[in-house]
Every structure is written in structure tokens, then in C-alpha cells.
Amino acid sequence: MFESTRRTFLKVSAGTTAAAVAAPNLLHAMEQELGGKDLSPVTGTERQAIPYTCHVCNIQDGAIAYIENGRIVKLEGNPEHVSTRGRLCAKGNSGMWHTYDPDRILYPLKRVGARGEGKWKRITWDEALTEIAQKLDAALKEDPNTISLKWGRNRTGGTLTRFMNTLGSATVMNHTSICEASKKIGMQPTWGPDIETPDFANAKYILNFGSNILEAAYFHNPMSQRIAEGLAENKCKLVTFDVRLSNSAGKSDEWIPVLPATDGAVALAMGHVILRDDLQDSEFINTWTNVSVDELKEHYKQFTPEWASKISGVPAETIERIAREFATTKPATLFTYRGPAKHLYGSYNEKSCMMLPIMTGNVEKRGGYCLPRGMGWPQPQPEPPKPAKPSYLSTPPDYPLAEHKVAQLLPFWIAEGKQKINVHFTYQDNPVYTNPGADAVWGKLYRDEKLIPFFVSMSPFMGEETALADIILPDCPYLERWEPESMPNSLWPWLGIRQPVIKPLGEARENRMLLRDIILKLDPDGKRGMKQYWNFKDGEDYMRQHFDNVPGLKEAGGLDFLKKHGVWPIYGKLDPRSGKIVDKTGREIQAEYGLHMKEVPAADMAGAVADKAGTITKGGKVIGLRRNGKNVVGFPSKNKLINVRVDEWAEYGFNPMPTFKQIPWHKDLKDDDLILTTYKINVHKQARTASVKWLAEIMHSNPVWMNTETGNKIGVKTGDLVRIESRVGYMVTKAYVFEGIHPKVVAIPVGFGHWAYGRLAQLKQRQEKGGAWGATNDPDIDNNVWWDDKGVHPNAIIPVVADPIGGSQGWYDTLVKVTKAGPNDKYGDVKADWDKHMAAFKETIRYAYTGDLHRTMHPEMASWAGPDSVKHKAASGH
Q1: d(CA 23, CA 714)
Q2: DSSP 2-70
């Protein structure tokens, strides 16, 4: 007899939801049939519907909030949104619980105890702004660049940059180096943009390197829909290279376990096979790239399948077969994410992977590897000038290409006296939890009042970082604020907005307003020249200055159109039977391809000249290419070509051609050496969802995955405690032993093991609530939490690793020893050491200078890395 419990209900519901996402044509949502309406189940009256753009993660799904009696009661997808087509993921559907988090900060707070002691007093906004202005004034008199800002996810549309530019400070760090920098820098100099938009729905073959796109990768909601269509309707083959059996790998036709950081070697070997067997698109290469087919063939001779197999563990015959399949199946496309890029040499890996659609000519074609389709918006005028960076603030001396700045190195720069900070702001950031080293590195930095004298956190929540601030300004969660939005997450460009669906709770102020108020407190009469850049009365006024003059949107109604629809343009209507956007005739709308073949506008050609190679220049700038008798715009790179050879890389001592460098400490792995990797799951983001009740109930613990072979060697089975030890520390957690992971890899999901993010995330249900900031009782948390495991967070034992090209953190490079837990080991133990992290940081710098093109370390970097570092030069070759 089947016994229904809350847990079995959740499991059954999750399975039903997964089936619904995979087969939208089987379901007919009433709300979609009615065009985005919703009725109260109690009164039968229509609820107020307000469109917005989700921001639980960075994918920016179009959505609708339903309001009843002034309260958000339901969230669902916006059926008018061309990319997400009326669907939200679990994180998006639960977004209202960020707003109604019982531990949310609703009032300005000032620290009254030691940093991290947890003692606060409520202050007024005027008191908070006055103290911040006084600290800023003193810092400005010394040096504006001693004012710093670090953000995690910045979707403010330029507001944070405007704030720092107004202050004249260039000391701005973001999360990109932690997350995506090497992917971006691996792509950007090659073809212009730093992302891609594969046409999955129309592809016949998809190569996936290290992306869990069906669950947790970039753009997973809009793109996973298109992959499902490609698999079901287009009979597409999906091949995934990944270290573990992710949900995406599990849905693939083939999952091929690959040793971490060797994706690039496999891709190069595939390129070798394609060129060796003359399967390349020679016309495309010779017409649209800056190398010839002959050059490519000569360069790729060295990257044999046998060479790649020895490095990656992928059989040579598998590499050969998949290379031929990819090259001979048209159209084909490729997607990568963290697997190739989150390594010491991640930029090389990314570049090598993206070469496959380039050499087969599957670029800007239906079913191919396409340029991103995004849209921009004007900034309110006047804009503050961009401050020049002093030499000590330009990306560290020998990270010249890492334009996103290598933020994971910040604690070490400051501790070593390379960068002085007087006032530090953070926004949607939590490096004390999310960055390598976690509390052992960033917690130590933020607790040190000599290094960070004054720390302001702009946050709605008391996270691990915010708990160490001097003043907390209560920012609004995303359902209470205005923001412009566009994301190239489908083949149809769009503009959207986030708008407040309810008024801010308590005394919370949205970010653009609280930043304006700081500037007005600092420059009330405009004599300092700052006030002029903040000439807006509220968030809506600021948005009008963005949108009311956008061509096309202006004629449609500007911001008023966006307030009503949430997105522009409206390409068609969602067909609930097919789950696709259709035009007035009922036909599915079609994307535009061949963007590089668009003609240069005639007005732009006035005064332009073309050389023998067909490069069109005007005023010394390349504006297009002469191809097949037409003046076309080409690709968005500087020379309008796809730069297989990146000369800029060679200028700084990096190999300009596609190449591979193995992680030095991954060579000759010992029998008991394992590589620790981390990953995300579909119901959590790394630091922002553990206090969301719906999501925490679905997933609240994170055992470490290990292969059965590995478990047998160390005598561990599922549920046993294990000790995972890296060079900087150790952690104790539970094991999950099965076949779905590479035998030399252990993997643990992030987003668990919080120690300062609300009662639910910490499983401290009945601890004293934070009354000073407006926290409230929650009987649901007090009485209905049936689980007793909050998980264990691994980041403290992951040392800093920085790709010398892109700057990304090497999340998947950490060598560990895994043993059965000892008698003194307790579940949840995490210990790490600042000095060991510092030593690892210095070694990383030394490794960055071995094996490239005669690259000599900058003297300042050598002083950080040790006396022998200047000796490290390298010969070219792989």
C-alpha cells in the first residue's frame, strides 16, 4: 500500500514538474490560455498581474507577479517573453520568499560590538548617510581610489559604475573573475562578444563541454527548452564531456567522463582529426578568419588523439569518432561553461573548444553557433567621466588581459600593502562564503579594521559578509526595485524591466535611490560637481531616462509599454499547445541568421576605403569587410574577422594560437590524489537560496560524490563520513558513492553549510531573531523543518588559482586526499589557514609563468611570488 508523506509528495511533484518542462506541448496552462490572468481560489476575483524580470540568478527570465491584498501570492512565467516563453524554474517560482524572508533586514544598522560579534543597533537613514558621507569625504581628500566597491551580481544597468565614477574612484571589483572571466576572455578577442547563443532547437549535433545547461548553467531556462526541442523534434544528438553524470550528461546520448581541465586537449585533438581528414569548411576559414587552412593544418598536427587521450583519459578512438560525427553532421553547434574555463589555463581551453564550430563553418547558421542577440539602452545624461586608473590599480601588473580584474586576489594585495582601502562598499556579494578561501581568507580580511577601516554592506540579508560590516543599508530584493534588463539568451533580442510589484517593506531603499542619497548627502548644493549626475526623483524617473528615447520602443510607448508588458518587442503569441511563439498566422516565428553578412549602411560608407584584402576602414577604424562584392559588417571583433590567431595574446607572452597547457600539479597524479570539483544544482544559487523554504526543503544537504572504485579503495560507502584534505585545510562530510563520476574526481555541490544567513540556512530555528533589523517570528520555520542536515561548505579548503590570461578562479584544480573520517572528526568540521592560502597564492603566480612564449615575470609580481620567480621563463609548445 502506498503511503503518502510530505517527502514522497515532493519527490513525485518534482518528477511531474520535470516531465512538464521536457514536454510543454503535453500541458495547457490555464494562465497561458487566458493570457497571463490569475483568479483567487477564495474569492474568484482576478488578481493584479504585474510583469517583471526575475533576478534570483543571472538568467533574467521574464515573469509575472500576482498580487492580492497588497501581497505577492504567486509568480509565473511571462507568456509574452520571447526567450523564456511563459516558464520559470523552481528558483524563480519561489522568488517571493526572498521578499518575505523572516530574517530580512528592514532598517539601517550600525555595528556596536566587534566585527562579526553580531551586535547591532537600529539607526535612521540620516544617521547612516551622514556617517558614510563623512568617511567618504575624508577618503576623497586622501585619494578617491581608496574608496572601493565590490559587487557580485550587478544588474543595475550602470548605476554602480555611475556611483564610483561620480566619486572619481577606479577601485571596482566584480564577481566575473570568480565565475566567467576565462570563458569571456577565451572568446572575446576571437570573435568580439564574450558569450555565444547556440541554436540548439535546430541543430542536428550538439557538443557540450563541461556545462550542466539543462539544470544549472548560464541561460538554462531558455536554452534548456531549445535543447529539449532539438532532442525531441529534430532528433539531435547530444554528447557531453563532463567529470560527473550531471542532469545534462544524463539526458545526453553519450556522457564521456574527462579528467578536469583537459577539455581543451580533447577539442584540439578533434580539430586535428577534422583538418587531417579534410572535413573542415575551407571556404569559411579562408574568408572569415585571420588564418589559412594550411596554417591551421600545420598548427594542429601536434594535437593527435593519442596525445589527448594520454592527458584526458578519453580513448583516442572516441575522440576520432566524435570529431568525424561533428564535422559531417550539419548543422552542428557547441556549448561550454565552467568545465573548460574554470582552471589555471581556462582561456586556452575555451578558445580550443570554440574552434570546432569555426573550422566546420557552423557559425551564424540555422542550427549553428551564433552571435549573441542583445539590446542596449542609453544612460541618463550627463554622465560622470570615467576616472583614470593609477598604475597600482590596473589589473595586477602581469594580468594585462584580465579586464574584469582578478578579484579573488584582492585580500592578498591588500594584506601585502599593494592596495589601500579607506571605505569599502559591497553589493549583492558574499565572498566570505562564495570565494576561494571563504572565511579563512575573506573573513580574515573583513575583520581586520586596519586593512578595511570602514565597511558598508548594501544588502537585504544578514549573510556571512554582511555580518562583518560596520553599517548595513537595507537594499530591496528584486521584486521591489527598478532595473533595466536585456540578456542574449535566445536568438531574438529583447529589452525588459524589473519593476516594484509591491512597495519596499520596512525602510528598505532600492540601490539607485540609496546611492543617489549618499551623493546628495556628500554634495547637497552641487558645488562638488557630483549632484548633476543624479538628477532623477525616483527609480521610475531614472528608468524613463533609459527607455523613453529608445528607437522603436519610444513609438510603442517607452517605459509605459514595458510597465504593462515587461518586455519589448512582443514577437508573437505563445501557443500553449506547442510551447512556442507564433505569429498571427499561427506559424512559429523564425530567427535571423548571418548577422556578419549584413551590409554596412550606405551612410557609413561615405569616406571609407577598402584595401586589397577587403578590409574597409574609415578614420583609421575597421568598419566592415568587402566579401563577394558586398560591403558587410563582419564579426564584432576589432578587425571584423574571427581571430584564430590572437596577436594581442602574443604581445603579452601567451600563445596566440589555439593551444593547451596542463595544470602542473595534475601531471603524474599519485594513486591517492583526487581532484576536488564543485557544482550547482537546479534549486539553489551559491549564496542566495538556502533560506528560501520551498527550495531548502527540496535540497538541504550536499554529500560529496565519489566513484565506486574510489570508495572501495578507501573503504567508504554511501553515508559514511570522509575527511577531504587540501593543501590549505580540510573538511568532514558525508559520502555518496556510485558510478556517475570520474574515478580521479570528487564533487560537492555549493550553496549549503551557511553560518550566517538566516535561521533556516543555519538550522537555528529557535534562536533569537534579529529584532534590531525587523526580523519576525515564523511558525513554519519553528515547527515544520523536518530535516537536521544543513550541509557543509567546501570553499574554505579551495586555494586561490588565477588564470594568467582571463583571470578566472581555478575552481576545479584543487588536489585533495580523501580518507575515512577519524575518531576526532565531526560532520561539518571545516578548517583552513590564511598562511597556507597565501603560500598557495604565491605558487599560483609562479606557475602562471611556466610553459608559455618566453614570458618573464613582472618584478613586482616576482616580489610577491618569491626570489626564484624571475627565473621562470618558458619555451613554446604544448
Answers
A1: 43
A2: ----HHHHHHHHHHHHHHHHH-GGG---HHHHTTS--B-TTT-PBPEEEEEE--SSSS--EEEEEEETT
Specify the residue for cell string 487566458: 34
Q: CB-based contacts of 391: which residues, under 8 Å, 6+ apart?
A: none
d(CA 454, CA 426): 11
Give me the sign of the Cα torsion angle 537, 538, 541, 545.
Answer: positive
Helices (H) and strands (E) counted in the chain, each on its own, are: 33, 32
Strands 729-738 and 704-707: parallel
Alpha-helix residue ranges (DSSP H) falling in 247-345: 247-250, 263-276, 282-288, 293-300, 305-312, 316-328, 338-341
Q: CB within 8 A of 239, min separation 6: which ones?
A: 205, 206, 207, 208, 252, 253, 254, 256, 322, 325
Q: In sequence order, what are the beta bridge partners of 454?
A: 423
pTM above 0.85, yes or no: yes
Looking at this protein, which amino acid is placed at residue 287? Answer: T
Q: Which helix (H) or strand (E) holds 164?
A: helix 159-167
Domains of the chain: 182-370 (3.40.228.10), 595-651 (no CATH), 664-839 (2.40.40.20)
Express each pLDDT in 541-594 by its tens digit. Answer: 999 999 998 999 999 999 999 999 999 999 999 999 999 999 999 999 999 999
DSSP type of residue 244: B
751 in the Ramachandran plot: left (φ > 0), alpha (ψ -120 to 50) or beta?
Answer: left
Place of cell 550528461: 249
Q: Can you tell me whether residue 311 is helix, strand or coil?
A: helix
What pLDDT score was predicted for residue 117? Answer: 92
Bridge partners of 393, per DSSP, are none
Q: Whole-angstrom Cα distance, residue 302 to residue 49?
A: 60
Per-residue pLDDT band at 217 (split at 50, 70, 90): low
**How far apart are the C-alpha atoms of 614 and 453, rounded to whole Å?**
57
| Nearest alpha carbon to residue 743 among 245, 154, 206 | 245
Whether pLDDT at 10 is above 60? no
9, 694 in Cβ contact below 8 A? no
Q: Please name the helix (run of DSSP H) or strand (run of DSSP E) that holds residue 521, with its range, or none.
A: helix 511-522
pLDDT digits (tens, 9 = 90+) for 262-281: 999 999 999 999 999 999 99
Cβ contact 677:765 at 8 Å: no
The H or E element that residue 781 is part of is helix 779-784
**Residue 833 contacts by C-beta under 8 Å, 6 or more apart in sequence?**
440, 728, 729
- If one counts every other C-beta atom within 10 angstroms of the C-beta of residue 723, the result is 18
Residue 509: which of 134, 784, 108 has the closest Cα? Answer: 108
pLDDT the model gives residue 863: 54
Spatial separation of the C-alpha atoms in residues 50 and 409, rounded to whole Å: 42
What is the chain's Cα-based Rg?
27
Report how far Cα 829 is from the mean position of its chain's Cα atoms.
28
819 SS3 class: strand
**Burial class of 829 by CB neighbour count within 10 A (0 to 12, 13 to 18, 19+):** middle
Query: What is the structure's pLDDT at 390?
Result: 66
Residue 354 to residues 201, 216, 332, Cα–Cα distance (Å): 19, 21, 12
